[in-house]
Specification:
By secondary structure, the protein is α/β, with parallel strands linked by helices. It is built from 3 helices and 5 strands, in the order αβββαβαβ.
């Protein structure tokens, strides 16, 4: 499990989060969080009681729109119920061709909510897999 400095680096440098430094004084990270029968987050991270991050691997068959819909709706609901500011969904994949369809489906699902973001990263960028 990465330490808090590594998580801070990942969130700021890889995901591009511009949260102020003091937000990173509190970092909670859980592994293998089950959202449904079929969906298990590799990591769920809460930073400074402001930022919620769901991380999940795309798997060998990629993502279905229903899985993406469940992730977005569950993340939004959790963000709102916990009074957090932003939710970031991080999908780890090496399938470059999956990025455009995932982003398009995500944009439809999030609607006008500008506090929900999608990040598609490679396995090499995933500090939790090292």
């Amino acid at each position: 499990m990465p330490n808090n400095e590594q998580i801070k680096y990942f969130v700021q440098r890889i995901l591009g989060c511009r949260c102020p430094a003091e937000v990173f004084c509190s970092i909670e990270c859980k592994q293998d969080v089950r959202l449904s029968k079929d969906i298990v987050l590799t990591n769920m991270i809460t930073i400074g009681n402001r930022l919620l991050i769901y991380m999940i691997g795309a798997g060998p068959n990629g993502f279905t729109k229903s899985n993406l819909a469940l992730l977005v709706s569950t993340g939004k609901r959790e963000r709102d119920s916990r009074g957090l500011n932003t939710m970031r969904l991080v999908i780890v994949t090496d399938e470059a061709e999956n990025q455009l369809p995932l982003q398009s489906a995500f944009d439809e699902l999030k609607g006008v909510d500008e506090k929900i973001h999608l990040h598609i990263i490679s396995k090499e960028q995933n500090i939790f897999a090292k």
